[in-house]
Design brief:
180 residues, alpha/beta, Rossmann fold, 6-stranded mixed β-sheet, 4-stranded antiparallel β-sheet, 3 helices, 21% helix
């Protein structure tokens, strides 16, 4: 991919290279394999954005586990709408289970907070969060982010599963916006 990438009316510049992403994923999967050994966690992948990160991460998770998917949405363009829509829900009983939510990016944490509330009603033993990217300056919640690859500034990013109005997910690298 080029150093800059134009998607619709926005221009993005290369920010995090895939080699760096893969190195962090190796570290993260080692931690997960150690910390969750014997717990047989259920990984809940948040679509659409987390599919590439989840695929790379879960190929390196060697403990017994299960994987399922949910589709949540709160974005329109480059801004969070603040309204969470659960489009596809969980299809199994999670009572007493260790749940690991896999996200592509956590910024305000509003979507994740709402989803954690839904999960809490289903009585899991514990809920953990794994994300490729965290925007600590935008994060407005107190729950822990248990596993993360990168902390980034509060800038809009695309690539590696992240999109701008549906475009840009197909890059192996992550790009940040040049102008908002």
């Amino acid at each position: 991919m080029p150093d800059t990438w134009k998607l619709e009316d926005k221009t993005f510049t290369k920010f995090i290279l895939n080699d760096d992403i893969q190195a962090k994923i190796c570290e993260l999967s080692d931690r997960i394999n150690t910390e969750l050994a014997g717990k047989k966690p259920l990984f809940v992948v948040v679509l659409n954005g987390a599919f590439i990160f989840a695929s790379d991460l879960l190929k390196r998770v060697t403990i017994d586990c299960e994987i399922t998917f949910v589709k949540l949405s709160s974005y329109q363009g480059t801004m969070s709408t603040g309204v969470v829509q659960q489009i596809i829900g969980l299809d199994r009983d999670i009572k007493g289970r260790t749940i690991v939510i896999i996200e592509d990016i956590v910024d305000t944490g509003l979507t994740l907070e709402r989803f954690r509330e839904v999960l809490a009603q289903m009585e899991p033993a514990e809920v953990k969060v794994a994300t490729c990217l965290l925007k600590p300056d935008a994060f407005k919640n107190k729950f822990p982010i248990d596993y993360q690859c990168f902390s980034i500034p509060n800038e809009f990013v695309v690539g590696y599963g992240l999109d701008y109005d549906g475009l840009g997910r197909n890059s192996s690298d992550i790009y940040k916006i040049l102008e908002a």
